Amino acid sequence: MILTDSEIISLCKDYEMMTPYIDKSDHLSGISHGPTPNGYDIRLGDHFKRLSGYMYVKQGVKTPTLHNYEGGVIPKNGIDIQPKECILLESLETFNMPPNITGIIMNKSTWSRLFISGPNTVIDGGFKGKLTLAFRNDGPWPVCIEKGMGLSHIIFHKSSENVLQPYKGKYQGDKEVTEAK
């Protein structure tokens, strides 16, 4: 079952599923954030990591160095994502997912129309922490994104019962932008 805006807000209040949250949709520089009829648009947090190089990853190697990143705090006037550039961004919101709720992270339509492709991934029941989201600029021009802007859309699904094994993976408790482990 897909949750409605009122159910999402209720879970944020009663379970602290997502903090901070807002209970009415808003926008920054024309990009919306907050509740939608059947989802929630999360915002860009304070930190980023920019792909600065990469190494060939050989299959079967137990601990390969995947990528080299440089990062820091996003400037007040935002951060540009250059054409063909990959960047990791953190969510402003911190999650505390109930064991019977799953979040599906999707692109916001505005970013898609600017050729910014983002993560389509899952927040498992039991996950706790900030999200690290990978974005790529497939367009021919730089695109600027500011702290607090709507970043991604999440659709929340309620299971008929709690999962047997809530998320306890390697990204549990993330408090900052985290590279692939």
Observed structural traits:
globular; 181 residues; two-stranded antiparallel ribbon; mainly beta; Deoxyuridine 5'-Triphosphate Nucleotidohydrolase, Chain A
Secondary-structure blueprint:
Blueprint: H1 5-14, E1 18-19, E2 26-28, E3 31-36, E4 39-54, E5 67-73, E6 79-81, E7 86-96, E8 101-107, H2 109-113, E9 116-117, E10 121-123, E11 128-137, E12 143-145, E13 150-158
Antiparallel strand pairs: 1-7, 2-3, 3-4, 4-5, 4-7, 4-13, 6-12, 7-11, 8-10, 8-13, 9-11
Computed structural class = mainly beta
State the end-to-end distance: 32 Å
What is the gyration radius calculated from CA atoms?
17 Å
The level-1 CATH class: Mainly Beta
**Average pLDDT:** 90
What is the N-to-C order of secondary-structure elements (H for helix, E for strand)?
HEEEEEEEEHEEEEE
Largest sheet: 11 strands, antiparallel
What proportion of the residues is helical, as a percent range? under 10%
Number of individual domains: 1
CATH architecture tag: Distorted Sandwich
The number of helical elements comes to 2
- What's the shape? globular
β-strand amount: over 45%
Number of E-type strands: 13
CATH fold group: Deoxyuridine 5'-Triphosphate Nucleotidohydrolase, Chain A
CATH homology group? Deoxyuridine triphosphatase (dUTPase)
Query: pLDDT below 50 for ≥5 consecutive residues: which ranges?
Result: none
